[in-house]
Structures are given as C-alpha cells and as structure tokens.
Amino acid sequence: MERKDIKSMTKEEIALELAEIGQPKFRAKQIYEWLSKGVDSFEEMTNLSKDLRNALSEKYIVPSAKIARKLVSQIDGTVKYLFSLYDGEKIESVVMSYHHGYTICISTQVGCRMGCVFCATGMNGLKRNLFPGEMLSQITSAEKDLNIRISNVVLMGMGEPLDNYENTLKFLQLVNDDEGKNIGARHISLSTCGLVDKMYDLSNEKLQITLSVSLHAPNDMLRSEMMPINNKWNIEKLLTACKDYTESTKRRISFEYTVVDGVNDSEECAKELAKRLKGMLCHVNLIPLNTVSGKEYKPSQNSKKFCELLNNMGINATIRRTLGSDINASCGQLAGERNS
Ligand code: SAH
Ligand code: SF4
What we know:
33% helix, binds S-adenosyl-L-homocysteine
C-alpha cells in the first residue's frame, strides 16, 4: 500500500483517518500540532503511544524539506536554503528579515515549464509539482533551523503556483489555519506569470491574498519574446483578468516588471506601460534584473528614471530592494541544484 502524505491534510482530514483506526479526535489535534511545529517523524511525537507511532509510520509519510545546504548573506542576513525532498529532488527557499518580521519566499514546483527567457528556474523545464505539505515544510524547516516565527509568505520561489493550482490552494488553506501556522491571507503574496483561467478560479475563492502578476513588458511583441505564456494569454486578456480580480476581491494587484537593459527599459516602454495601466488599482514593482549564468541579459541602468517616469504619469511604482545578492538568492535565480 502506498503511504499517504499526512502533512498535506487538514486537521479534520487527519481526524477522519484516525477514526478509521479507532483513535479519538484529540489525537488528530496532537498530530496536527506536531506537524505545524516542523516535527517530521512520528517517532518524535512523544505524546502518542509507541504502538500508535508505529502504526502511523506504516500508513503515512511526513513529506519533509531537509536542509541540504544553507547560505547566509554577509550583506543583509538573507538566508537561502537548498532543501532535499523525500524523493531526492531539490528546491530552494529564501528567508528575508524586514522590520515587520520574517518573510519566506517558497517554491511551489521543482522547476517550471513556463520558459521565461530571463529566469533560471525554467531552464530545465518542470520536474514535478510540490505537495501542500512540502510547501508547508519549507516554512517549518526554516523556522526550526533559525528559531524564528515567520510572519509573511510569498509564493515567488521556484515554479508557477497557478500551474500547481489544487496543491497551492490547499497549502493556502493549511498555512492560514489558526490552529496551524495561522498566517493571515493578507500576509501572503502569490506571484503568477499570468495563467488567466486560473486567475479567474482564484478570484472565485475570494481570498484576501495579494496577487502579483509578472508583466515585464508593455506590449505583446515584447512580452511574447520574454514570456512564452503571452502567446496563450496576451496582455489585454491578462489585464482584463486583473481588473476582474480587483473587482471581485477588492484587492490591489501588484505588477512585477523586471527591468532589462536595452529590452524593456526605454522611455517609450514607460509611456506605453503607463497608458495600459492607467486607472487600474495597482502598484508596479520594478525588479532589477538578476543575472543568471548562461543568459546574456543585463540589468538596466535606467531603473530610477523608468520609475520616475511612471510616477510622473500617475502610476504607483517603486524599485524592489535586492536582498541576498551575494548568495544568488534574488528573484529568478533559484534553480535547485543547478546554479546555487
Ligand atoms: N512563476 C511565478 C513566480 C516565481 S518567479 C512568476 O513568474 O510570477 C518570481 C518573480 O521573479 C517573477 O516576477 C519573475 O518574473 C521574476 N524573475 C524571474 N527571473 C528573474 C531575473 N533573472 N531577475 C529578476 N527577476 C526575475
Ligand atoms: Fe516560471 Fe516564473 Fe521563472 Fe517564468 S519567471 S520561468 S513562470 S518561475
């Protein structure tokens, strides 16, 4: 019999499983609490009897994220983890310290199949989706290792979260649970390259999470060159989905725009972008391009001017601070074992 993944279950689901083997409800609560604390073997659940622990180990796995390597930035203390999963696959997560607390950037897939030309994650395609429990384990492993409590989660590491929709949604439910990690939806951001159908599904969930949309270009010709997904859903369809998302959730969209030297950083691009976003409830996050080995793109020298131009045209824009640059922990540089 294949063992089931217990960390991807809600407390209610664990209770149902335990009822099948004649265990009372409060046991489910105990197990759920251990899992939320980052315990990744039944052996360590010391308030359960030895017999129960053995029975559970035969039926379930705890999909842990084991630290394979840890790098700490000498510049700003950002920590990058390379985690090893139950099947030997590797993913990366980054913990950043801000004045309001700790934020973790987690991965949602091993690799990515979206093929954006400037990104390290997509270079070898998609290996597999992560389970909800594996997304959660990145948080619990980092908290345990650093002896901290993480207050904010961004789904901006390896992978496209909406390409792993069901698991991502279950993860959001688990991380939000007040008897689990209890991280409020408003402390969670999800970044997508623009899977429009899934954005509509997400908006129907009426979650209060922040949706970040990777835009990166003001017109279809340029965006299709940078992001193959634009051939499926162009900018117009994407921006319509964004407007509908704001309409139904009342949440402001955050657009990500990686500024690439000589590609999308001209005055013309800024004007075109401002025109397209005019009147939308949104914020533009300008991301300095992070160099990725094997890619010829260079960071723009023009970001500040680009930002000012947008602001002058009434578009709310800021330049994102780069953290962990000495340990390749910045946006788009996470690639599992390949470049870390
Ligand atoms: N797949 C999702 C989330 C992960 S990528 C998405 O694409 O939105 C997180 C962010 O980093 C995205 O905005 C992505 O476009 C950006 N990014 C990718 N490669 C980058 C690079 N080399 N430099 C700067 N940002 C990059
Ligand atoms: Fe995938 Fe996002 Fe990288 Fe594009 S930018 S390849 S969607 S991880």
